[in-house]
Amino acid sequence: MKRRFFVIFGVIALCSILALTLILQSAPRTVQQAVSNAIGFCEDLREPDALLMLDVMHRRFGIEAFADSLQRYDQVLANLSEDEASHLRVFRRIADPDNPIRDEDWQAISADIDFFIVPALYCNPQRLPGNYVVMLNQAANAGGLQLTHALLACIWIQENGCEGLLPQGFTGKVYHATAALINHDSVVNEIELEAAAFLYLAGQNSLVDGAFVERVVAVQNADGGWLPSSDPPVYSYLHSTILALLLLLHVEYPADSYPPMLAPKSP
């Protein structure tokens, strides 16, 4: 009888633990919890593009786990071939205003998107190409990744003090077109994450529906990352996770203004 009692008690205790685990797993996750989990996912990354964005998060939000991101970026570059490093050296300007690049580095720019975001990155002191506005307008009208990166180019142009080179009302058009990429259905995909994150970077958070932010928090994976699309569920993807974390850090730490995305020159 006594043995049966302990068996029953053990079964009840095990069921209680399982029930509590299920309750905790199904409990709504807060933005703060989502941010903490995502930082854990990202803190040991060695992927160059991700490291530059982690450096932005360190400078903008003081995330100490990302304080050595530029050093890690340089370590990665040091272990690459010269051809592989050339393209990455160009984008190092995001974290270092005095970034040294070589003539051959410019030749490494070959992707369609790079042709209009790199000039924005270096528009001060270099001038934008003569056909730049036409090229940027074509990107904005193309939608998708071309549009979100046209917004990124606008952010860099403004931070470099070159905004007078853009037609009046152009950035407003890009803001609203980017916001229209965010759907109201239950699926969260990568282009929506990029649109929302870049709008927050641009100080246009009012164009991002709070319900979308709630959906982003809700679809975070148990490992702290996000999927390229929450339908169908697959694996956590680095690019999606960086974008979601960037978005949620702005939500978690609201401010009237933030340090610029591009590292500024020392006074």
Summary of the model, kept short:
With 267 residues, this protein is mostly helical.
Note the main attributes of this structure.
single chain; 267 residues; mainly alpha; 0% strand; globular
Explain this structure.
- The structure is a single chain.
- With 267 residues, the chain is mainly alpha-helical.
- The chain has one domain.
- The protein is 59% helix and 0% strand.
- The chain is built from 13 helices and no strands.
- It starts with a helix and ends in a 15-residue tail after the last helix.
- The N terminus is likely disordered.
Helix fraction bin? 55-70%
- Envelope shape: globular
* Biggest beta-sheet profile: none
Number of domain modules: 1
Q: What is the chain-wise order of helices and strands?
A: HHHHHHHHHHHHH
Secondary-structure topology with pairs:
Elements: H1 2-26, H2 31-42, H3 48-61, H4 69-78, H5 82-91, H6 103-107, H7 114-121, H8 132-142, H9 144-159, H10 170-179, H11 190-201, H12 210-218, H13 238-252
Helix pairs in contact: 2-13, 3-4, 3-13, 7-9, 8-9, 9-10, 9-11, 11-13
